[in-house]
Amino acid sequence: MWDSTMFLSTLTPKFYVALTGTSSLISGLILIFEWWYFRKYGTSFIEQVSLNHISPWISGVDNTENGSGSSSSSSSNGSQSNVPECKVWRNPLNLLRGAEYQRFYWATTKEPLTYYDMNLSAQDHQTFFTCEADAGRSEYELMQSAWRERNPVLRLKAAHTAIEKNPECASAYILLAEEEATTILDAEKIFKTALKIAETNYKKSQALQHQGSLMEAQHRRDTNVLIYIKRRLAMCARKLGKMKDAVKMFRDLTKEVPPIMNVLNVHENLIEALLQMQAYADVQAVLAKYDDISLPKSAAICYTAALLKARQVADKFSPDIATKRGLTSAEMAAVEAIHRAVEFNPHVPKYLLEMKPLIMPPEHILKRGDSEAVAYSFFHLAHWKAVEGALNLLHCTWEGTFRMLPYPLERGHLFYPYPTCTECADRELLPSFHEVSVYPKKELPFFIIFTAGLCSFTALLALLTHQYPEPMGVVAKAVLNSVSLPVYFVYDKIECLLPSNILLQLSRI
What we know:
mainly alpha
């Protein structure tokens, strides 16, 4: 005991400054790492290591056995719940790379698309526009490599080479219209050229489709190319203000039944075009066909249904009057429809109410995620503004007077619980300069708060010790002596109870 007292008495204030400063530095580094890990992965590193490694080790549970035993069940459960919830879908309203995304990059020097998003598009294009019958045909083999190529210059060069080899290579014209055309008009001209070629190729392969599996695959490819070009032409007409032509083309496309139609979701293009024309009765007719429980829901369907309900009451709606007299049946229906939409995708209201800045929509979206909210709001914000009072009703319902209104019980089964995997997928789909919306808002983990407090406390001690070395030295010695008193007390009790020779033998071990 006297040795420890002598040791404490020899410690200088510089030692305490170094001790507290080092502790502050280490805890600060831990805090920075914990914050970075939480921002990137949404969880605490220390907490994850404790739960996954330290706790099983202390409890004696073998991680390998547990992991092998649970992998099959987790994979089976995941295949039923997690995978469908986090499936990435092609954005029905995706923009043209050359005429829209590229012009955004020229204006801002910010990349609007991520490599992950473009890789998904490359996979889609290979699925849509290539087939087994392309083997041995140099122009189509060139296009197969062009869809996989990351460098846009090499992609365009391959498309031009393919057209030189075969002027009837429709997929090469698609690539040029998508990426080389710098205006919507230029893209439309190229797509019209591609349409003539695609229709000719489709008729040829249609007559030969029953002559073997290769011809059947070629006809399926030609069908995909034709439908894709028609859809893009309709979208060009929509952007150029030719609304009647666009709606007619979209209506014709919705009557098609090939498998590609399940991916393109053309009915959402039709809904958006009809809203632009303010043909609300036609929009309601489309919703009646597609807003079905057996079909995959989308923000476009849910929020358009809410907009139509809000339109009936929004122009005369007053939150003060509604609070006093209660909601009418029409107002209740509108509020419930908004609740239903927000329940499906809670990120959308921030963009519609312009509480978050909009960015260019990605080429792929995650349903119920921030990427879907960006894509929906980018095109539909103008439609909400066109309905007087609709945004006011949305604001009141979302975070105002009627936010706590209970959801109707009979509709509680429409949606699964909000998936937990959306944040990671949205970070892959959306550019790095966009702040991804997270739902539900995650609280800071305990260890981040703890390390922040520890860092602040030790930094304060280091500062005080540097400014007032002698008083802080006295305080530190007093604290250390008080902490060591219980230890010495227990040691003295053990020394009294046990013979001295046993303690001597133990000290020699």
